[in-house]
Amino acid sequence: MRIIGTGSARPSLTVTNAMLEKFLDTSDEWIVTRTGIHERRVISSERLEDLAAAAAMRAMENAGVTSGQIDFIICSNVVNEYVTPGLGCVIQGMIGATCPTIDINCACTGFIYALDMAEAYLATKDMNNILIVCAEEPARMMNWKDRSSCILFGDAAGAVVVTKGDDLKAIRLSTHCKVEALYQKRRLQPTPFVTKEETDTDGVVMNGQDVFKLAVSSSIRDIDKVLTKAGMTADEIDLYVLHQANVRIIESIRHFVNQDRSKFPFNLDKYGNTSSASIPALLDDLNRANKLKTGEMLLLSAFGAGFTTGACILRWSK
Ligand code: COA
């Protein structure tokens, strides 16, 4: 496959660390030192589907394809206001497409999983253009009294259009069940028949230190494996487009591959962790700023609740 267009959309409201100081026992200094995040965008008046459709339209425009030319939509999403139908169905209607859609929930790793699915569909089915939309509102999952988690996240949508091609050089996905590291439970509708005890959590429950360690160790392992698979060295990668969760996680990975900081583009200072939207939205920022050159090798790597992880090496040929 080959990426031929990128798009993104973010909520209008910027929430700075100083704004968080007003209702949380935290400080700009603590957040910046421990995470690298200065501010994030948080949904206020928007609907997530508006952001998702806007990102999709921008990606299609960038690719030079119309909604009628999209053969399949893969939507990566953890939570949105609809329990059903899938967000992909809602996006399909909003952009005027008529193709089948599927939603996946692989948490922050969703974009890499979606790329893998797209590669398989393009290789085995009669499809030319696949739209991947990652639309996330993690801010709506947080307990905004929990200073160790709510400071990390922001909302966003990122999208790409992929077509047949030979740019995906290696990809690796993994899941290691470790629910307790990062999860949220919700209580379902009661019935006259349920006898088991059910609980819901007050927003996301996260063991930050465990997640940090898992994130670094799994990313290092994935990066090592995809480099080997592609027969490449770390030096041959032009840009490491990593999941934007914490600048210290990115730094730990950078030390492992021993590459210059300039190879690690980031925007988490402005947007925080936007779950699976983080990599496609960063790709879009880079693409629109003309920072991606044809022939460059990109290494994408992400991790998230599950614990899911994934990495791939992609030649940029847009
Ligand atoms: N402001 C001020 N103090 C805070 C705080 C905040 N926002 N959040 C936590 N603290 C405090 C803790 O209560 C603790 O205080 P104590 O020592 O008095 O108990 C202290 O800071 C250190 O907490 P700790 O959890 O050890 O900090 P940390 O260096 O591990 O950083 C995270 C916490 C959450 C930033 C870090 O663990 C992390 O980024 N983990 C990965 C999370 C992630 O990426 N999740 C998404 C995965 S897709």
Helices, by number, come to 9
Give the CATH H-level superfamily of the largest domain: Thiolase/Chalcone synthase
* Gyration radius, rounded: 19 Å
- Based on secondary structure, the structural category is alpha/beta
> Compounds present?
coenzyme A
User: What is the 3D shape?
Assistant: globular
User: What spatial order of strands do you see in the largest sheet?
Assistant: 1-7-6-4-5
Calculate the mean pLDDT score and round it: 97
User: Which stretches are low in confidence, meaning pLDDT under 50 for 5 or more residues running?
Assistant: none
Under CATH at level 1, the class of the largest domain stands as Alpha Beta
Number of domains: 2
Report the biggest beta sheet as strand number plus sense, adding barrel if it closes.
Answer: 5 strands, mixed
Order of helices and strands: EEHHEHEHEHEEEEEHEHHHEE
Strand content: 15-25%
